[in-house]
């Protein structure tokens, strides 16, 4: 798969098979993230690669409980509102029960923290597509990075005191008949372009 093909056919996967991701594939994905460009070549993005089932369940439960405790406000971002509502109703696994979740953290106060982490996330999602694996960018842990129970748990998994969660990405085999992720190209109606020739 060439790069443009990987870009054109990458779509978010939100239903995963339980099967683990092979170690060599996972390492390739992580390396793709580590090779991403970063401001001033800072290389300060931390990759917390969680594939332990108990840890995934625990973090999903802590996150869901934290969302359930949130007060719904008028100006709440619509994606956050839907997850808060789902968690108030019962258990909702923010990572869609994917077998792997990679949490991307970076230094608190570093101006390129988010940009660096998102470059890494994108590289990893494209590499996953090349390897026939599904992926989904997930904001939940970024929203909960200051929430004490989530933060304490992530600290146990290696999050530094001076670090903040920028993003996370779920990975795994898509739960489709052929096991391949949905690759139907999305219709782009926004993203205006101005060519100044
Ligand atoms: C910054 C960002 C945050 C996102 N957060 C979530 C999320 O928390 N949960 C989720 O299911 N998808 C999330 N997504 C995935 C988007 O919903 C998805 O990329 C978009 O709908 C386009 O669909 P596609 O990825 O299939 O092309 C996020 C994507 C980005 C870039």
> How many beta strands in the DSSP annotation?
4
Named at the architecture level, the CATH assignment of the domain at 13-52 and 98-172 is 3-Layer(aba) Sandwich
Please, what is the average pLDDT?
97
CATH topology of the domain at 13-52 and 98-172: NADH Oxidase
Secondary-structure element order, N to C:
HHEHHEHEHHE
**Main beta sheet strand tally, sense and closure:** 4 strands, antiparallel
CATH-level-4 superfamily name of the domain at 13-52 and 98-172: NADH Oxidase
Helix-strand category: alpha+beta
Low-pLDDT runs:
none
Rg over CA atoms:
17 Å
How far apart are the first and last residues' alpha carbons, in Å?
32 Å
Share of helical residues: 40-55%
Strand order of the largest sheet: 1-2-4-3
Question: Topology, pairings included?
Answer:
Blueprint: H1 3-9, H2 23-34, E1 46-50, H3 53-69, H4 78-89, E2 100-107, H5 113-130, E3 134-138, H6 140-143, H7 148-156, E4 163-172
Antiparallel strand pairs: 1-2, 2-4, 3-4
Helix pairs in contact: 1-5, 2-5, 3-4, 3-7
Describe the structure.
A 4-stranded antiparallel beta sheet has the order 1-2-4-3. It has 7 helices and 4 strands; from the N terminus they run ααβααβαβααβ. Helices cover 40% and strands 14% of the residues. Helix 1 packs across helix 5 and helix 3 (53-69) packs across helix 4. It is an alpha+beta fold and 197 residues long. The protein has a domain at 13-52 and 98-172: 3-Layer(aba) Sandwich (NADH Oxidase). The structure holds flavin mononucleotide. Flavin mononucleotide binds at residues 11-12, 14, 79, 136-140, 186. Flavin mononucleotide is lined by residues 11-12, 14, 79, 136-140, 186.
């Amino acid at each position: 798969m060439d790069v443009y093909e990987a870009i054109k056919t990458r779509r978010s996967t939100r239903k995963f098979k339980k099967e683990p991701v092979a170690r060599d594939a996972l390492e390739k994905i992580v390396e793709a993230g580590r090779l991403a460009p970063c401001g001033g070549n800072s290389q300060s993005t931390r990759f917390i690669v969680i594939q332990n089932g108990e840890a995934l369940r625990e973090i999903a439960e802590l996150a869901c409980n934290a969302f359930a405790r949130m007060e719904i406000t008028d100006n709440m971002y619509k994606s956050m509102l839907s997850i808060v509502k789902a968690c108030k109703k019962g258990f909702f696994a923010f990572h869609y029960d994917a077998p792997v979740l990679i949490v991307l953290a970076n230094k608190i106060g570093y101006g390129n923290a988010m940009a660096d982490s998102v470059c890494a996330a994108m590289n990893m999602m494209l590499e996953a597509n090349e390897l026939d694996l599904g992926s989904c960018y997930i904001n939940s842990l970024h929203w909960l990075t200051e929430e004490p129970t989530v933060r304490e748990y992530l600290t146990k998994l290696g999050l530094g005191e001076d670090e903040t969660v920028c993003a996370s990405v779920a990975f795994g085999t898509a739960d489709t008949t052929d096991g391949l992720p949905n690759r139907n190209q999305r219709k782009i109606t926004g993203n205006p372009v101005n060519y100044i020739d």
